[in-house]
Amino acid sequence: MLLVTGSSLYAQKTIRVNAVRANDYGVVYTLPKSSFEITLLVKKSNYRRGDFYTYAKAYLGINDPITEDRTLYTLEDLAVVNRGIADKDQSYMIEFRDKTLEPYLTLREDGVILAVNSEGEIREGNDIELPASESVDLNPRRYFTQETLMAGSTAKQAELVARQILDLRRSRTDILTGEAESMPPDGTAYKVVMDQIDLQEKALTGLFTGTTAVEYLKVSYEVIPDTGNIDRRVVARFSKLLGPVDADNLAGEPIYFSLRNKTPRVEMNLSEREQKKLEEKLSSGLVYNIPGKADLTIEFRHETLLEKEVDVVQYGSKEVLAKRMFGNMKQPIKVIFYPELGAIKQIIQ
Predict the structure, then answer these.
(1) Phi first, then psi: what are they for 288, rounded to 5°?
(2) Span 271-283, pLDDT tens digits
(3) For residue 10, which of 104, 123, 102, 119 has the smallest C-alpha distance?
(4) What is the pLDDT of residues 141-197, one digit of tens each?
(5) Are 85 and 313 spatial neighbours (Cβ–Cβ below 8 Å)?
(6) Which segments of the chain are extended strands (E)?
(7) pTM for the whole thing?
(8) What is the Cα–Cα distance from 68 to 210, expressed in whole angstroms?
């Protein structure tokens, strides 16, 4: 599943829901299930040949100018984050006693529980910083001399521009060695002059070497596991000519996602009476997740790009805090959850 890039997709507000007489002192909440967001950091390089690329070696000794316009993509980095999405099949109600001191729950906008009698927190960000782009915004023709502008052929223009580049280099050397006829009067003027020389040289040399503009982009994909293992699922593909593409686009090479459960599953053969007792337990207290452990692996081009142990709600189990824990009139118990797991982070008494 392809996602919109950026953290704004997951920016959610918190909601405080009080347990009052109007709702019979009961508050409905939802537990999350694991949802892994795979974010690719992609570098897009736009190569553009210069107008004088055929004269690069003859006039400036440049052996490897860009000879054709092209765009290439490279995969620079990759990150995986468990976002924890609301599991609509795991919604519960906790009923407080009517004399409990101002009980309340803090929820995400999607109903996922964050805390009891506390504000809780929401984690944001996707662990990858977007580097600054490197654009080419220089117009070399603004630095052409009158003679170059009036030249009758491309070959003549290339010759005159090459001569201008060599003059700029010579001027820089003269200033650096103190041999220039007119030296900058102070440090500020020196910097201004040298920066201008560098700028002009870069712009004009680009007519021979070609130019490269670089930009970075992030693309994210989502994997929501079930209770089984995932063995090398193709979550996306990547092409050096097209960049990241969908999993079914064979123009790119596959990016594989694997998830292997490390938590032994205990089969519970409950009698009808035991099953009923379990349901009553889940319906009366505060239900929370105990995630299982798993090995997560990302592979691309026969290399392992990422390998780490992760918590997975779908591989774990559930437990309950008894309702009587929240009946303290003088000092209410606070419970803070990991928002992406629905597991207890802290109990404050």
Answers:
(1) -140, 165
(2) 777 677 766 766 6
(3) 123
(4) 999 999 999 998 999 999 999 999 999 999 999 999 888 888 888 889 999 999 999
(5) no
(6) 2-3, 14-18, 26-33, 36-48, 70-82, 85-95, 104-108, 113-116, 211-223, 230-239, 243-245, 253-261, 286-300, 303-321, 334-338, 343-348
(7) 0.82
(8) 9
